[in-house]
Amino acid sequence: MLNFTGSYTNEPTIIGRQVLGKTTIMIISFIIPHKGRKELLQATILSIAAQTYDLAQAEIIVVTQNKELSVNELLPDEDVKTSIVFRPESDTISALRNRGADIATGTHLAFLDADVKLSPNWIVDMLSELSLIDDRVLVSAVQRCSESAPPLEKIRTALSNASTDSNVDFLPGRNLLLTKETYSRAGGFPEHLVTCEDYYFTNKVHNIGHLYYSSKADYVHLGEDKKYKEMFDKEIWRGQSNLQSIKGRPIPLSEYPSFIVPIWILFFFIATPLLILAGEPEISFIAFSLVCLPIALYSIRLYKVAGGTVRFYKIVQFYFAYFPARILGTFLGLFKVINI
Which CATH number fits domain 2-224: 3.90.550.10, 2.30.30.210, 3.40.50.2000, 3.30.1330.10? Predict the structure, then answer.
């Protein structure tokens, strides 16, 4: 193995490890943005190293805001070309992904979150799925629950897998595979967005061709929320880019509920006590019923999607936490839109 150091534009050091031997055409470049827990990143990289694929044709690029990472501690005993790119904390996750794509040498780009564990067949079957149909331009594997998954993780997994083995309008960014040519045509990830960048990017890719969500391979989201407090805080954070994410792109019909329902719930939630104070208890009851209506409809739908693996009251509990967090996040994001 050969250690090397270098520089990239105006950025800090790139450090890496490459495998000695004959020159091999690089097929797939794994790009992993990272900030935070090192042990989850290590598990993600080890799942790449465990692939049933010739890893001489693969490279790993970690774009991190953690200054203490080293290649050997991430992948100590594997002959996989690996690089670490250090970036400032001001960069968004989109900027991290784009910087990784800038130096990638593979014909295909695999964008992963830094807390996913891929099934061993991920590379083989995702490359196969991508090339199966000419106008298919992006593929993603389905989510699988970890062992002894709590109800919240089962709910999240069921939401992710609502439509499998089918074309979709957008995909989450936990595991995405596309050609470098398609990435370039889509213009890269939107660096002005703090969150929702994956939906924005994959929606742009959808204008080029089909996005396919496949069950041929899978991943475990190691960083999945296990407690409602964690979920509530993250949904506030995610919701802050809701309004910014709709600028500059057409909005598919399937996305309208995600914007309308939080406004609906907020409006009738505020109306309920005001109507009581106004001496209209009957109308107040109707208003509160209208608060509960979308929560009930979403809960019934998810219960069917989950196939009874999660108790109905747990799903209702999830949505009573999810929608207030989204409302608060969208409200906070309003000020970001105004300041642009």
Answer: 3.90.550.10
> How many angstroms separate the Cα of 323 from the Cα of each of 235, 297, 318?
9, 13, 9
Phi and psi at 265, nearest 5°, equal: -65, -45
pLDDT tens-place string over residues 181-222: 999 999 999 998 888 889 889 989 999 999 999 999 999 999
Give the number of residues written for the chain. 340
Report which residue type is found at 145: C
Closest Cα partner for 86 from 101, 68, 110, 109?
A: 68
Residues 6+ apart with CB under 8 A from 69: 34, 38, 41, 62, 84
Tell me how crowded residue 254 is: count the other CB atoms within 10 A of its CB.
11
Q: Mind listing the pLDDT tens digit for each residue in 120-158?
A: 999 999 999 999 999 999 999 999 998 889 999 999 999
Cβ-contact 81, 21 below 8 angstroms: no
